[in-house]
């Protein structure tokens, strides 16, 4: 979901500037999301089956690139591609090549000689957090990327209505995000249940999933995407240390309580601050209860007047293409 969200953020900003963008994704969330309506008429989304094996994934990407004549090719996070296929394919791409370069596990970097793969790119865009090759001579840093600009967020009142609260309901809202691996989506449901029992009527707890299919068949799930739009109405956000969750919480001033989920390439523990990271269910419950005691009912406007780094990223890519 993180890769798809970053791709959508870049696409949305590029389409708004008049560009035509094709997005290739194998995210298991992609089939159920209204991506085209959010991205605009200049975007086409190509959804690969998430469960293809390595050989089939390589074949699909190879075929897609063979049928495409892009003005620029942008790759998120993995310079070698979804399954290592880009190591051989990039030399055949005549267009300028851009890497969205975020933190990567150093074991992966060393094992697969990522330094060499990075050198195949004409521009590295580092979106708001440190990365192994952030000091590369072709690297540029931006502020974190957000899927929505601040002026696209709902007002607090509208966000609370979208979350299912009555206008006269003064209780704070705890949102539990279920958007990781399938077992993590179910874990988010169970966390929401525990918090609901712990807090009783003192707060409203919502279990948010991107699509209804991701709610493990439960009527408890509230399908809402992008969740960023309603964070203005959330008093405590419970999630993981993924790039988008963390950056969206910080941009909107939403208190975050998060697990550092194990990932093969991403290091969530490094992204989370001590005040955001929790280790077990007991710590989670105590942190949420503590945050709710001082939960603000209105956030200053300055809390959501953030800078979206995706816009200078698009401008940088435009300059690269013009100079090619």
TrEMBL record:
SUPFAM superfamilies: UDP-Glycosyltransferase/glycogen phosphorylase. This is UDP-2,4-diacetamido-2,4, 6-trideoxy-beta-L-altropyranose hydrolase. It comes from the Bacteria. The lineage of its organism: Bacteria, Pseudomonadati, Myxococcota, Myxococcia, Myxococcales.
């Amino acid at each position: 979901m993180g890769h798809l969200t970053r791709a959508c953020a870049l696409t949305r900003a590029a389409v708004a500037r008049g560009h035509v963008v094709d997005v290739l994704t194998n995210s298991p969330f992609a089939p159920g999301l209204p991506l085209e309506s959010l991205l605009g008429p200049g975007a086409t989304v190509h959804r690969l089956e998430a469960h293809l094996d390595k050989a089939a994934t390589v074949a699909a990407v190879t075929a897609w690139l063979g049928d495409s004549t892009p003005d620029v090719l942008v790759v998120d996070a993995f310079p070698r591609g979804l399954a290592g296929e880009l190591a051989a394919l990039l030399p055949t791409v005549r267009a300028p090549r851009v890497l969205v370069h975020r933190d990567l596990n150093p074991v992966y970097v060393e094992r697969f000689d990522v330094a060499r793969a990075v050198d195949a790119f004409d521009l590295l865009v580092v979106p708001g957090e440190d990365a192994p090759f952030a000091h590369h001579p072709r690297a540029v840093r931006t502020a974190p990327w957000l899927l929505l600009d601040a002026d696209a967020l709902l007002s607090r009142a509208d966000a609370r209505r979208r979350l299912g609260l009555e206008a006269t309901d003064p209780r704070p809202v705890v949102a539990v995000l279920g958007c990781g691996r399938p077992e993590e989506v179910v874990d988010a449901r169970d966390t929401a249940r525990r918090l609901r029992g712990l807090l009783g009527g003192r707060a409203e707890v919502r279990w948010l999933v991107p699509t209804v299919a991701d709610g493990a068949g439960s009527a408890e799930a509230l399908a809402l995407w992008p969740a960023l739009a309603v964070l203005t109405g959330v008093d405590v956000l419970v999630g993981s240390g993924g790039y988008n969750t963390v950056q969206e919480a910080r941009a909107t001033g939403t208190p975050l309580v998060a697990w550092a989920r194990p990932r093969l390439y991403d290091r969530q523990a490094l992204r989370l601050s001590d005040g955001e990271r929790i280790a077990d269910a007991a710590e989670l419950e105590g942190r949420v209860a503590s945050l709710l005691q001082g939960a603000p009912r209105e956030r200053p406007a300055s809390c959501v007047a953030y800078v979206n780094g995706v816009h200078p990223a698009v401008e940088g890519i435009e300059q690269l293409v013009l100079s090619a």
